[in-house]
Amino acid sequence: MGLGIIGWIIIGGLAGWVASKIMNTDAQQGIILNIVVGIIGGLLGGWLLGLFGMDMAGAGVIASFLTALLGAVILLFIVKAVTKRA
């Protein structure tokens, strides 16, 4: 059973918010950006874990959240690294 679009938005928002707390960017982001970061992070995290042979499809809500969190932290790290040099 899939989460549906609302489930992905909720998981993405939570993952983006937690990642922004970890990376200390929460003051710069609003709820919409947290959701976007979390959803893109989920795609990035899933892709990266796929490179290591891990298939996260259908692994459950907790695994989806952790995958999105991993990807969101990596995404925010990259964004911080690029914007500090520019």
Automatic annotation (TrEMBL):
Localization per record: Cell membrane
Entry keyword Cell membrane: yes
Entry's transmembrane regions: 6-24, 31-50, 56-79
UniProt keyword annotations, A-Z: Cell membrane, Membrane, Transmembrane, Transmembrane helix
Primary location group: membrane
Domain of life: Bacteria
A Pfam family that the UniProt record links to this protein: Transgly_assoc
Keyword ATP-binding: no
Lipid bilayer topology: Multi-pass membrane protein
Assigned protein family: Belongs to the UPF0410 family.
UniProt name for this protein: GlsB/YeaQ/YmgE family stress response membrane protein
